[in-house]
Write a structure and sequence with these properties.
3-stranded parallel beta sheet, two-stranded parallel sheet, 14 helices, globular, binds tryptophanyl-5'AMP
C-alpha cells in the first residue's frame, strides 16, 4: 500500500524582541503540539517585520528562531527558515498582488487598525501585508495554518486568492488552506484592558507579558491585572473578560480544561487566581528564557538551521512558483534557450 503523504502546515511569527505570551500561546505552543503529525514549515517572517521598522532586525531574527527551538520545535522534523532567504515569497506576493482587489485589502481590520496609528505616511507594505502572507502559505501548499484568532481574516483572504487563481488559470495551482485556531489561548487579552488583544503595540506595556519579562515584572503585571468588582471565578468573556483571560492563560499553559479550573476555584478569591497564574506563567516563561539564552550563545548552530531550512524551503517554493509562472504565461528562460540553439 502506498503511504498517504502527511498533511502540511505552515506558520510564522514576526521577529521582534517583544515576543508576547499571546504569540506563544496563540501560535507557537500549538506548532509544538502539531509537529509530530504534520509536515511542518515554520518561517521567521522578517519581510513582514520591516513594515514597521528594521531596528534590531538581525538580532531579532536569531531571537525568534531561538524561541521556536526553546519552545520545543524539533529542527530535525520541521523546516525552519528566514522568509527573506527564500526569494520566491516576494515573487509570488507580486503575482498575487495583481489578482487582489484594493477593496479586499481595505477591508482588513488589521490594516484599518494599524494604518490609523501610522500617521501621514502609511507604508504600502502595510496595505499589502496580507498578500505576502498569502504567498507564504500558498507556496508550500499548506493544508493547515496554525495561528491566533486575529489572523482569521487574513486566512480568509488567502483562501479567496487560492480559489481565484485556481479558477482563473483553470488549474489546481494551490491547495486551499484551513486556519487552525486553538480552542484555548487563541486570543490572549491585554491585562490592563481585557477588551483588547494583548499586543506589543498596545498603549501601556503594563498590560503585555513578554517572553523576556523578569519574574518580578510578570508578578507585578498579573497582580495589577484588571478584573471586576464581583468575586466569582468564572469563564465569561462578556461579563468577566479579565478573569476569563487569567483562566485562559493558565489553561493554555497547563493543558487543564477551563471547566476543571473553574471547579477548583469555587469559594476562592481573585487573589488566589492571580497567585496561581503568576506561578504557572513565570515557571513557563523562565524555562523558555533559560533555553533561549543558551541557544543564542551559539549563532553558528542557529545559522546552520536557517541555511538548511532555506534550502529545503526554496525547493518546495520554486516548484509552486514555476507552475504559477507557467500558468500565467511567462516565457521560461530554459525553454527559450533551447529554441535559440535549434
Ligand atoms: P505576529 O508576529 O503578529 O503574530 C504571530 C502569531 O501570534 C498570534 N498572536 C496571538 N495569539 C493569541 N493571543 C494574542 N494576543 C496574540 N497576538 C498574536 C498571531 O495570531 C500569530 O499566529 N501575520 C502573522 C505572521 C505571518 C504568518 C504568515 C502567519 C506572516 N506570514 C503565514 C501564518 C502563516 C502575524 O500576525 O504575526
Amino acid at each position: 500500500m502506498t503511504p498517504v503523504p502527511r498533511q502540511r502546515i505552515l506558520s510564522g511569527i514576526q521577529p521582534t524582541n517583544h515576543i508576547t505570551i499571546g504569540n506563544y500561546l496563540g501560535a507557537l505552543k500549538n506548532w509544538v503540539a502539531l509537529q509530530d503529525r504534520f509536515d511542518c514549515y515554520f518561517a521567521v517572517v522578517d519581510l513582514h517585520a520591516i513594515v514597521t521598522g528594521r531596528q534590531g532586525l538581525t538580532d531579532n531574527t536569531y531571537y525568534a528562531l531561538a524561541t521556536y527551538l526553546a519552545a520545543g520545535i524539533n529542527p530535525e522534523r520541521c523546516c525552519l527558515f528566514a522568509q527573506s532567504q527564500v526569494s520566491q515569497h516576494a515573487e509570488l506576493a507580486w503575482l498575487l498582488n495583481c489578482y487582489t482587489y484594493m477593496g479586499e485589502l481595505q477591508r482588513m481590520t488589521q490594516f484599518k487598525d494599524k494604518s490609523s496609528k501610522a500617521g501621514r505616511n502609511i507604508p504600502a507594505g502595510l496595505f499589502n501585508y496580507p498578500v505576502l502572507m498569502a504567498a507564504d502559505i500558498l507556496l508550500y501548499q499548506a493544508n493547515l495554518v496554525p495561528v491566533g484568532e486575529d489572523q482569521r481574516q487574513h486566512l480568509e483572504l488567502t483562501r479567496t486568492l487560492a480559489q481565484r487563481l485556481n479558477k482563473t488559470m483553470a488549474k489546481p495551482l494551490f491547495i486551499v488552506p484551513d486556519a487552525y485556531i486553538p480552542k484555548v489561548g487563541a486570543r490572549i487579552m491585554d491585562l490592563r484592558n481585557p477588551k483588547i488583544k494583548m499586543s506589543k503595540s498596545n498603549p501601556s506595556p503594563e498590560g503585555v507579558l513578554y517572553l523576556h519579562d523578569s519574574k518580578d515584572s510578570i508578578a507585578q503585571k498579573i497582580r495589577r491585572a484588571t478584573t471586576d468588582s464581583d468575586t466569582e471565578i468564572r469563564y465569561d468573556l462578556e461579563q468577566k473578560a479579565g478573569v476569563s483571560n487569567l483562566l485562559a492563560m493558565q489553561a493554555a499553559i497547563s493543558g487543564k480544561a477551563i471547566a476543571d479550573l473553574e471547579a477548583g476555584y469555587q469559594g476562592q478569591n481573585y487573589g488566589r487566581l492571580k497567585a496561581d497564574c503568576i506561578e504557572v506563567v513565570s515557571a513557563e516563561v523562565l524555562q523558555l528564557q533559560q533555553r533561549i539564552t543558551a541557544l543564542l550563545a551559539d549563532r553558528p548552530y542557529l545559522q546552520s538551521i536557517m541555511n538548511k531550512g532555506a534550502e529545503q524551503a526554496r525547493a518546495v517554493a520554486q516548484k509552486t512558483l514555476a507552475a504559477v509562472n507557467s500558468a500565467i504565461g511567462f516565457v521560461s528562460p530554459c525553454a527559450d534557450d533551447k529554441k535559440d540553439i535549434s
